[in-house]
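Morning, I've got a small favour to ask if you have a moment. It would help a lot if you went through both lines with me. I owe you a coffee for this, so here goes:
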Amino acid sequence: MRNFLGISDPVEWLWFRDSNASGVARYLSPQQAPQFDRAQEMISDSSPSPPKTVLPSLLQPRVVVYDGVCHLCHNGVKWVIKADKYRKIKFCCLQSKAAEPYLRLCGVDREDVLRRFLFIEGPGLHHQASTAALRVASYLPLPYSALSALLTIPTPLRDAIYDYIAKRRYDWFGKEEDCIVVQEKEMLERFIDREEMLDRNKSEL
């Protein structure tokens, strides 16, 4: 099975930016990555002057960045994890440092994502609010993926409903002082910021 980028699932791929190719995002498989590293070392050893480097990053496709202190958002993430039996979607709390490169990549700030959660589908393709929710649903198995048919509803109408609930979510569902996921460590396996969350939790003990 292939996703929208033509990359086979469920294999993970490394997303990096090539400074020699004007910052174009590329993909390497786990098998290709060591070969890439060795090639870079050979270039470095044989070159009389330091070459432009290819800088790997932690950026990954299909990442949800969401308000980690919000009970409604947390319950939504729990629902997606339960439904996503092929483990296609990954998560990151907005309040973590790991979220910062994704925000920069998409040209949004934390206040934007507090209002409307962010789904980074791949290089140059991200969504917010109701479109983000429905694009996430499209990666889930049936019957959940059928929810993506709601994308045919005009975006302003969908987002009006989303924004109405989002503005009132703390009053209706409550919030915590820190990311709620640290209280349910079995979920952290799906989080790209899990080490940061665990370290933060240890420092507070």
User: Anything to note?
Assistant: The chain has two domains: 14-56, 63-204. The longest helix spans residues 155-173. Residues 1-37, 39-44, 49-56 have pLDDT under 50 and may be disordered.
